[in-house]
Specification:
44% helix; 4-stranded parallel sheet; single chain; alpha/beta; binds 6-O-phosphono-beta-D-fructofuranose; 10 strands; 4-stranded mixed sheet
Length: 308
């Protein structure tokens, strides 16, 4: 996200536009925690994870009174447009705020979950995937030496992109994802398909979700229903949300940040910058928010074929 903050700031200043950084997301807008940003304020941040602006989940901004206060901050500061970087919740807030107060807002998709419709990828996703890959490569040594079945839980509360593409990247047996959790018993399917025919150790990536049962839930089931397996669990947790961003993420965030400012100067509003087949695009907020981005089910098949 820092690469996007840097790109927005510098593109705006390059175009003669003044920039304010809003601290702690919508909470800062409600509380008036807004600081002037110069080019130097975004020096040396492209390589840092997290966001120098900090972030927060603001309950107040979800109320009309809170959004009125946010609008008052904008008027006081002389701000006429906003660039919002975030996931589904941030973009939903942006859409409502833009409707109520006629503010020009452009969104940038930032979430490790990659679950935003209208864009092939989101800022943070590639970095999280690479973190998963490095961690699971290390777990594999124990899995192989001790001949164990490992459930590795990755983030993605509502979406299986990290689990699915992570599984492909690490050569896992399969990914257990929320999208199909109500359709099939993915654990039974895995075991009944004879997944350990040609090997003694196995790694399965599980999306953290009530729908999948999470890695702990699945391991408990294995102990109960398939006691012949020596099962272990690793929950990767918040290591997936930090660390120095990959080149792909820095490039994506830089391009999207620049495009967001250009969009505003062109009079665009209520759109998110998306990327499709490498090309940047404007996606109306309504489309990005209302639609659910589907996982590629064929990829799940690919993971399984490649693990025989
Ligand atoms: O929505 C992004 C996400 O990273 C999810 O994948 C994950 O389940 C959740 O946030 C974790 O949230 P928190 O940091 O509040 O525990």
């Amino acid at each position: 996200m820092n690469a996007a903050v840097r790109a927005v700031t510098r593109t705006a200043i390059y175009n003669g536009i003044e920039v304010r950084g809003i601290m702690h997301g919508y909470r800062g807008l409600v509380e008036g925690n807004v600081v002037s940003f110069q080019t130097g304020d975004v020096s040396n941040i492209i390589q840092q994870g997290g966001t120098v602006l900090k972030t927060a989940r603001s309950k107040e901004f979800m109320t009309i009174e809170g959004r009125d206060k946010a609008w008052a901050t904008m008027c006081r500061e002389g701000m006429d447009s906003l660039v919002v970087i975030g996931g589904d919740g941030s973009l939903t807030g942006a859409r409502i705020f833009a409707e109520e107060h006629n503010v020009a807002i452009v969104g940038i998709p930032g979430t490790i979950d990659n679950d935003i419709f209208g864009t092939d990828t989101t800022i943070g996703y590639d970095t999280a995937l690479n973190t998963i890959m490095e961690a699971v490569d290390k777990i594999r040594d124990t899995a192989t030496s001790h001949e164990r079945l490992f459930f590795v839980e990755v983030m993605g509360r509502n979406a299986g992109f990290l689990a699915l593409n992570g599984a492909l990247a690490v050569g896992a047996e399969t990914a257990i994802v929320p999208e199909i959790a109500t359709e099939v018993d993915q654990l039974a399917e895995l075991i009944n398909n004879g997944f350990r025919k040609s090997k003694n150790s196995s790694i399965v990536l599980v999306a953290e979700s009530e729908l999948t049962g999470g890695a702990m839930g699945l391991a408990a089931r294995v102990k109960d229903e398939y006691p012949e397996y020596d099962v272990r669990v690793t929950i990767l947790g918040h290591i997936q949300r930090g660390g120095s961003p990959t080149a792909a993420d820095r490039i994506l965030a830089s391009r999207m940040g620049e495009a967001a400012v250009v969009a505003l100067t062109e009079g665009q509003r209520n759109v998110m910058i998306g990327v499709r087949n490498g090309e940047l695009d404007y996606v109306p907020f309504t489309q990005a928010i209302r639609n659910t981005k589907p996982i590629d089910r064929d990829l799940l098949n690919t993971v399984r074929i490649l693990s025989i």
